[in-house]
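Appendix C reproduces, verbatim, an entry submitted by the partner laboratory led by Prof. M.T., so that reviewers can inspect both the input and the predicted structure.
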Amino acid sequence: LAPNYVPEICVNYGQQLEFKDETEKSLHMYEMCLNATDNNGVNICPEHLSTPAMCGVTRCNLKLGNHKQGIRLALEMDDKKLYQECGDLLEQSKQYSDAAEMYLKGEQYERAAYVYTKFLIKQDKSRISEAVKILEKVDNDQLNSAFGKACVAAGRYKEAAQAYERARDMDKVIELRLKYLDQTQDAFDLVRSTGSAQAAQLVAEYCLEVNDFRGGIEFLLIANKSEEAFKIAQAQGHVETYTQLLGDHISSDDALKIAYFFEKSQDNGKAGKYYSMCGHYPRALKLFLQCGDREIDQAIEVVGKANSDTLTHQLIDFLVGEKDGIPKDPNYIYRLYMALKKYDDAAKTALIIARQEQDMGNYFLARSVLYETIRQLEECEVNVPIAMRTQFVILHSYELAKYMVKIKDHEAAARLFLRVASNVSKFPIHVVGILTATVIECKRAKLLASCYEYAVMLMTQHRKKVQPDEVRKNIEGIVRRKSAYQEDIEEETSICPVSNQPIAQTLLECPTTRDSLPMCIITGKHMLLSDWCFCPITRFPALYSEYMKYIKYQESICVDDTEGIVARDPILNKVVRATDILLATEEEASNYIKKYNNIRIETDKKEDDEEENKSNNNSPKKDDKNNNSNENTPVNPA
């Protein structure tokens, strides 16, 4: 046999013998491979065969019980695969400490952890500290759980909690933190985050032992023991806590129990709230009404949910003072109609409220009522009455007119005062002031004919009320000099957004189609399709270029604002920034004009028609007489 074939044959044959458990013969073959020489006595074992031969020698030594020799050779080879093989052989030979060392050398952390947990810790509990570092690298729930159990048995609770946490056994973690580690708050937080019923029961028992009834109730609820929690809440006077902990996820049965309790305790407001939650609307309304004005908001909400004619009329009788002779704030009737989605009646009521406030001189409040109603109706995609928009335009024009005087834009102020003066009967408290301002601003703006007209009205109807005397004398002088006050300067024109014809800038009705034109909330002029934006705060239209000027001016005069140098919108007085103003498309502007005039957009109309046809086909016909009811008649809150 040629000498150069000897090493390869020896290695292959040695592996076969090792597989057949003929270890001594196998060892002999590996050694023959390593010691093979040629005829001159020179070693001829190639490098690529020496490595498997040495690994074989190492394994065979371990199998034959030469553990020290095998371990020494393994360390010299420093091969991960060999380390793993040596670890397996040493574990089989019950040399657990050496096996664990080999596994660690071969980065077989799970196998090393298994040896520590299964054998080494049971033999010597002090080796837990060594195992901790190994188990931190192991993502095996079963091994970590077993290690945690071993740590508990050894009284190493901190290490046990860490092991159970790695094993995702949060119930055990909570138990350890609660009983042994004095980490009660951490245990509470963990139960809240995991929602474990078993752990929650454990924590609840702990809380009740230390008289922490709030905690006991909370964790009993997490453990789905609502009956037990409610009994404790009743006995310990913590029903309010019980209801807070239930929050919005309360069941009908729980709500009914709570309602009975509060009614028995004569807390009608809270009892009504929980009767409403479980659908007992008549009882809820009765209790709310017994609270007087204090629970009217809740009563409105209940009637809105119930959508019952009987309950609606009970509440309306209460609001108009049928029962106690004391009419309530008309705003409540408006909110009731909104809750019932009776938008026409809500709009009529809002108009009445706004007029009452306007008659008393509360113009800002009246405008706020109209704005809020328009906004809510638009959000519900309900037609806004033109009368309401007109009333808002008049009130806002009055505010704008005063602003224009302040910035010394006298022509704009005069045009706006003329709009207000033509409706001066709606400002009964300030008729003289409005007419006086109209005369003064018209004179400054060279609107002489209009100046004379309102000067005559002022002197003939309110002469004695004009103050001071100097102003009255000046106005009397205007009346005497009619020939000097014959003409108004012509108003500038701009393109009508409906007819595309040039019209006066402050004209708010298209002379061709008679459509109402939306008003710019910054200037009081009609809108332009090419210069259209929506206020980011109110969503009302404004001329883009004018809004940007307005913001720039507001920022220039801003002093000591808590939010820095800012501008505020002209309706709600909220902070608005130039970066929030976006130019609208002509299509968006045209659609708004249609909505402003209560003209349905064609696509929406088709969809509504289709839905109506479906509902008519699917529902039986009803007698018209059954549909007639006095519930559709709005209540006049005046």
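The CA atoms of residues 479 and 488 lie 16 Å apart. Additional entries are available on request from the coordinating office.
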